[in-house]
């Protein structure tokens, strides 16, 4: 431990007193000798103006001699520069480091046992996609309590269970995950678990619906961010960590679809006045209520209806626009809208229908079941309708409504029956 200020002051004081005493005694002796020399010269008949300089000369000779003696003694006591400096280098450093030794010990302890000072604080569900890419990410929050800047390595080991089901895909460090943490910094990194389509179905609606994700034997490697730190890489291990899947399941709940007043009628074409109308398809009207049970906003992209006629499926997208009419016919090449008017649940083109979290939205939809988009679709469909009579489509038809949202998910209603109603005819 370094010498205290009090001890150093005492040493300096004693040294000053000793030096003053030594030089005082020597000065007294020299002065006496000088006086005796001058006195002797005077009594021997030497003039005073010669005796005084002679005494002074004796004084200076003795003083110079004492100075030479003190220099010799000091040089004798001074250590050899080359050997002594080299031999004292290490003790000097030790003394310099002595007061901060605990810091060096702390840094060395962190260097050797870094896994004890980088702590996993929390784990929660991060990003996810259970529709297209099929994955879920676990977000780990950590605290770097060491004195080093550290890096999380790319390699990840361990198993993830959905309740008791071992997930078959690999664990990977997310490519854009933060992996560098400075001293005293807390942050998070992401580990991605890939899923199979069967595992997604099991989580959303199977025996392990909204189950727990259990992380067993999870290992990540922590190393120094700088190679010069000489930090010993260590594995940070996690055993028996469970993360609830309820919040994730809530985001993928099936959208509720309720259909009322679903009716259909013939879509007639009157080529010329007074001619027999031709059946061009079916005009379908229905009231639909869409229920969003999720804790986030839902954006609807499209409504598509599939109707089964004589064992064959026909599909049509909902008519767009702000306003719909109950009945529509083609007359002499132009379409005539007639009957009751109502608001359209399906918004105009280039707009979307948005339903707030845990809210519902209802309104009318209309479909015209005919091939109008592509010739390849139009011709066979018209041929089918040309061979049909109203007896083929009277009474009721089974149908299914499919709703697609902005993320690409599709939601199917239960099969329901369309009821036939008589259309206007002129």
Could you characterize the architecture of this molecule?
With 426 residues, the chain is α+β, with helices and mostly antiparallel strands. The protein has helices at residues 5-43, 48-77, 81-98, 101-112, 197-205, 246-250, 375-386, 390-393; strands at 118-129, 135-144, 150-162, 165-166, 171-173, 180-181, 186-194, 212-224, 234-238, 241-244, 256-270, 278-291, 298-309, 312-317, 323-331, 334-343, 353-355, 360-369, 396-405, 410-412, 416-420. It has eight helices and 21 strands. The strands form three sheets. Strands 11, 12, 13, 14, 15, 16, 17, 18, 19, 20 and 21 form an eleven-stranded mixed β-sheet that branches. The longest helix has 39 residues, at 5-43. The radius of gyration is 50 Å and the shape is rod-shaped. The model is unreliable at 81-95 and 372-378 (pLDDT under 50).
Helicity level? 25-40%
SSE ordering:
HHHHEEEEEEEHEEEHEEEEEEEEHHEEE
Cα(first) to Cα(last) distance is 113 Å
- Unreliable sequence segments: 81-95, 372-378
Coarse structural class: alpha+beta
Overall geometric form: rod-shaped
Number of helices: 8
Largest beta-sheet details:
11 strands, mixed
Q: How much strand content do the residues show? A: 35-45%
Q: Radius of gyration in whole Å, from Cα?
A: 50 Å
Number of strands: 21
Rounded average pLDDT = 81
Topology:
Layout (H helix, E strand, L loop, with lengths): L4 H39 L4 H30 L3 H18 L2 H12 L5 E12 L5 E10 L5 E13 L2 E2 L4 E3 L6 E2 L4 E9 L2 H9 L6 E13 L9 E5 L2 E4 L1 H5 L5 E15 L7 E14 L6 E12 L2 E6 L5 E9 L2 E10 L9 E3 L4 E10 L5 H12 L3 H4 L2 E10 L4 E3 L3 E5 L6
Parallel strand pairs: 11-15, 11-21
Antiparallel strand pairs: 1-2, 2-7, 3-4, 3-6, 3-8, 5-7, 8-9, 8-10, 11-12, 12-18, 13-14, 13-17, 13-19, 15-16, 19-20, 19-21
Helix pairs in contact: 1-2
